[in-house]
Amino acid sequence: LTASDDTSCINEPIDLTALGAGGEVNNYSFIWNNGLGNNNTHSVFPNISTTYVVTITDGCSDIATDSTSIFVHSGFSASFTTNDSLCDGETGYAAVTVNGNNSYEYLWNNNSTSDSLIANVGSTYSITITDMVTQCIIEDDVEIPGYDQINAFFTTNNTSGCIPSYESELDFIDISQGGNNGTWYFGDGATTPYQFLDNPSHLYTDTGQYKIELIIFNEGGCSDTFSREICIIPKSILYIPNAFTPDNDGINDEFKMILSDVTPMELRIYNRWGNELFKTNDPNKGWDGNFDGKKAMSGTYVYKLKYELLDKPSNKAHIERGTFILLRKDSGN
Length: 333
Fold this sequence. Notes:
With 333 residues, the chain is an all-beta fold. The protein has strands at residues 2-3, 7-8, 14-17, 29-32, 41-44, 50-57, 64-72, 78-82, 91-98, 104-108, 116-120, 124-131, 137-143, 154-156, 163-164, 169-174, 181-185, 191-193, 201-203, 208-217, 223-233, 237-239, 243-244, 258-260, 262-270, 276-280, 290-291, 294-295, 299-309, 318-326.
């Protein structure tokens, strides 16, 4: 009876081989102790020192018995100490303690060879520990504990640039992940508590630039912040007079639009025969009732105004057409 090795680590495979020779007939039967079957070879995995005995018979000759002993080294085990759960992205540690009396060699799957490991939380690392006296090894793994990633994020129901004051009640749509409490800061001094997937609304009562900020926390106190800016602008105003009196008395001397938050602008003035008398792109400039250095006569004139509204940007020009009256106190001039 032969064995592939006479010493072993716990549960390490050992190959046993029994060979017969001589006897009346060359037809052998093998009877093993330890509950092994009747084959002449076996792979065994002893966890304590064990003696294996085999009895050989050919049914005619005297039986023969042989044995071999396998010495199994005492086992050892490892335990781990880790940090408490930390926030995603932080660095934690794991330290291994071996409950044996020999010297040991450590090899982590990140190639570290220390008995402790500094690593990112939320990851699992494996370690191989070798007993330097017996060369027996154990393998184990440990997770660096940490909380899941937390992400603050939101959008609004109005994403088309600046928002006119008459549409200044905004709905905030929460798309955050991992948070269960926190605070919305609306930028005008107002706040409201955060609840997961609760979509608050807020009314802005004044024009201006506002920074909205959302801060969320998870059960471990980990936080994340997301912010964006919005602008609230006045409603565009357009006033077109229906008459003017260019008599140089300082009152209503020009035909001029009253515009607010309108750009760009083009104003054209025509007489009743379609001749262009005046053109400007300056919203602060009006027609003084003159053409080619001469006073235009009292009567009805036509305007054409092209403009865009700042509070409703659409890349589409608006066109207004209409008539107005030029009145002179001295209708003969």
